[in-house]
Structure formats: C-alpha cells, structure tokens
C-alpha cells in the first residue's frame, strides 16, 4: 500500500488507527461457564490436562489382542493357532489378572477396550480365521507376524497428563470443545464478553418493521454493527436511533459510557451542520485518538476516550460503516474479548476489472473473490457506492486499492480480506 503522510496528528492511517484502538482496549475479566455454553467464548486461562488421554492402553481395532512374540514365526505355510482365552469389551475395567500370565493365547477385543499389560499387538479380525483346538476350544489361526504395538493406542499418547494443550485467548469452537470434554472439564474459564453500546445517530432513522415516513430510512447500521459484534464475541447493547441534536447525543453517550465497556456511534461524524458527534465528545472533554482515517469509504471515522472508555465513531454510509467495522473495530473488539490473535489476514489477488475511482487514500471496495489457476481473482462489484447495500449480497471480500493514481486497472495485483465467512 502506498504510504500517505498524515496531514494532521489526529489523521491516522488504518494501521495507526488500529494500534491506537488496540492499545486503549481493556483486558477482560474472566468467569466460568458450563461446557455446553463454552462454544463462541474465549478461553480465559491456559489449560493443563488433568488426565492422560487416552486414560488407558486401548485397542484401535476390533480383533484379537496377542503377545507379538506368539505370532512371530507365523506364515501361510506355517500358521499359528492361538486359543481365545476370553473377551474384553469397551467399557470393561482394567483388572486383567486372568490374562497376565497366560502365554500363547489371544483375547477377543473391541475398538476402545483396554488392552492387558504384556499384550502388545492387536490383530484385526479380518486378518484371522476362526478354528478349534484339538480339545475343541475356540482358536484363531494367524498366518502372518504382527508388529509390536500395532493397533494399540498407548496411555497418554494423545495428551500426556499435565500437558498444556489449550491456551488463554483461544476462540473456543467445536474442535476445542472436543478437547475440553475429553479432558472431563465441565466448568470452563472464559473471558467475560465485552459489552458494547451501539448508538445509531440521525433524524432520518427509523426502526425496521414500521411503515416508512417521507424522508426517512430504516436503521441498517445499528443492526449490522450489533450483528457483527455478536460474531466477534461481544455483547451489543443496541440503542434506538438518536436524533441529530447536541444534548440528545451527549446524553446517550454518557448513558452508554456508564453502562458499557466501550461505545460505538454511527453517523453524524462528518462536517455537516447537523453532524454533532465531535462537538458532543468535545463538550464531554473526550480525548481524541484520531479524528479522521486515511481510507475511503469512512474517512470521517473517529475515536475518542472518555470516562476511561473507548468510543469509536463510525461513518453513516453503510459501506463506510462496514469498512470501519472490519478494518478497525474488529481488532479492537477481539482484543477486548480476550483474543490473543486478532490481526487482519490480507491475501493477494488480481483484479479482473478496473476500479476507476481515483482516491488520495487507500480505497476499500466490496468485491467477489474466487480461485482460478491457483490464484485469487477479484471481481469488483457494480454499484459499490458508499450509501448502497446491495453489494453486500455478493461480496465475500474487501479489496484494498492503493492510494493515488487513477484507481486500479484490470490485472493489477491487490490485497484483500475475506468477509462474511463463518
Ligand atoms: N461536505 C462534505 N460532505 C460530506 C463529506 C465531506 O468530506 N464533506 N464526507 C462524505 C462522506 S465520504 C461520508 S462517509 C459521509 C459521512 O457522514 P457521517 O458519517 O456523518 O454520516 P451521516 O451524515 O449521518 O450519514 C451518511 C449517510 O448514511 C446514512 N445513514 C446514517 N446512519 C445510518 C444507519 N444507521 N443506517 C442506514 N443508513 C444510515 C444517512 O442517511 C446518510 O445518507 O458524509 C459525506 N458528506
Ligand atoms: O468516504 Mo465516505 O466514507 O462514504 O465515501
């Protein structure tokens, strides 16, 4: 990305804005939740394994447990016959006294069942034939040698007792739940979800659901931001739209700062006569972190600290609001949710069509990315105007067009983020 010099110390590049925000976000406190509520949360402590996994030596196949020495010389010409000395099923205990001193026998065994000490191979049932001894006792006939340890999972081979396998700051998903449950952990230490107030601002905003009065639009961003916060592991407190007025905005900001861990306002942040966000924060003696981000859309995006908390002020145009959400808010919220990895992963792709809008700042356009011949191709979406929402339907990427020049040409290499993946 071409570097653009900030013309004002409160005008920040995207990277600078992220680092300022991340630095200000507080570490969350932790709490315990039941295992069934752990998915979607963030692990609040390193977890050492309280038990060995598997907890005992076990068979990995249905078949017969043997001492490998018993079948060492077996071949199709000289098969070995072993008497079946008993049966061990999954769930049976590990007291194998009757089998310990027996030699030259096989034990019928099933996947997941404990293997007695001294028995060091399991032969799959498909590899043997059933027969009888001279005395009429059930036997197996084995016509090949077995490798020592074959089809046996040793105690602790998966996770030795005491080993740390899951670390603080990890997002808990289904795969981590499998580990927690395997270790018998019923109560999981997690970080408390950050509570984030979402305040849409604008006289024109109405709740979806009612009929639309002339000159009004439905509040889309309040819902979009709340939905994204939930996806990021935060708990949104969504405000009803606040009218464009200094006192109203200031009052709601104060209430939000008292109730939430951080605040997001949407709209009213630009230079119009009725854009009151900056004046409201100034009147509250909020300290600006940045008052402009060198990006488009969303150039007026700002952030402040007030009453010890962070307030992020996003632009009202839906694609500007979205860019602020993905490029700045996402990382700040992940940090506040306790995640230790919250960097943005940029991928390299190639534009299939031009994006003609020249821009003094990096431009973040909604696009459709697809794989072809081992590279990512990026199709810009039509009507990607800042105030439009239809482009969200097909967009699976946010592509960065470097600052300056006349936009981007077909074939140009660009960086992009994937968006909207589960
Ligand atoms: N003279 C100038 N005018 C504008 C500039 C500028 O530099 N000089 N910047 C433009 C740019 S770029 C943007 S982006 C907008 C940003 O304005 P705000 O962030 O203050 O947002 P609003 O003016 O309140 O709203 C902009 C637009 O978005 C609609 N909106 C607002 N909130 C919502 C919502 N919750 N859901 C759906 N749509 C929303 C609002 O109705 C407006 O159409 O300023 C430009 N102007
Ligand atoms: O920069 Mo404005 O943020 O929508 O185009």
Automatic annotation (TrEMBL):
PANTHER family in the cross-refs: GEPHYRIN, MOLYBDOPTERIN BIOSYNTHESIS PROTEIN
Q: Does the keyword field hold Transferase?
A: yes
Top enzyme class:
transferase
Top-rank taxon of the source lineage equals: Bacteria
All copies of the MoaB/Mog domain together span 197-335
GO terms for biological process, alphabetical: Mo-molybdopterin cofactor biosynthetic process
Q: Which named protein is this? A: Molybdopterin molybdenumtransferase
